[in-house]
Amino acid sequence: MAMWRAGDAAFAAADQAVQTHGGFGYAREFHVERYWREARIMRLAPISQEMILNYVTEHVLELPRSY
User: Fold this and answer.
1) What confidence tens digit (pLDDT) does each residue in 38-56 have?
2) Residue 38 · residue 51 · CB < 8 Å
3) 2, 4, 7, 19: which could join 52 in a potential S-S bond, CB 3.0 to 4.6 Å?
4) CA–CA gap between residue 10 and residue 38 (Å, rounded)
5) How far apart are CA 14 and CA 9, in angstroms?
6) What is d(CA 57, CA 1) in angstroms, rounded to the nearest whole number?
7) Could you write out the DSSP letters of every residue in 1-67?
8) pTM listed for this prediction
9) Residue 19, burial from CB neighbour count under 10 angstroms (0-12, 13-18, 19+)
C-alpha cells in the first residue's frame, strides 16, 4: 500500500508542477518533464498499481481473485 500511495502522490505532485508551469512544463531546461516521467514510471514499475490493488484485495480483504 505504501508503494501505491507513494506512486500516486509523486504523480499528483509532478502533474501539478506541469500544470503550474504551463507550456514550459514540457521544456527540458526546467526539469519538470523529467520529474513527470520519473513519477509516471513509479506507477508502472516494478509492479503496476493494479497488481498492488489485486494483492491487497486478495490477501488483506480476503476477496476472490479478480483476474
Assistant:
1) 888 877 777 787 888 888 8
2) no
3) 4
4) 9
5) 9
6) 11
7) -HHHHHHHHHHHHHHHHHHHHGGGGG-GGGSHHHHHHHHHHHTTSSS-HHHHHHHIIIIIS-PPP--
8) 0.68
9) exposed
Residue type at 34 in one-letter notation = R
Tell me the three cell numbers of residue 10.
509523486
| pLDDT tens-digit map of 12-31 | 999 999 999 888 888 888 88
Cα separation, 59 vs 24, whole angstroms: 44
- Write the burial class of residue 58 (CB in 10 Å: 0-12 exposed, 13-18 middle, 19+ buried): middle
Backbone angles phi, psi at 57, to 5 degrees: -65, -35
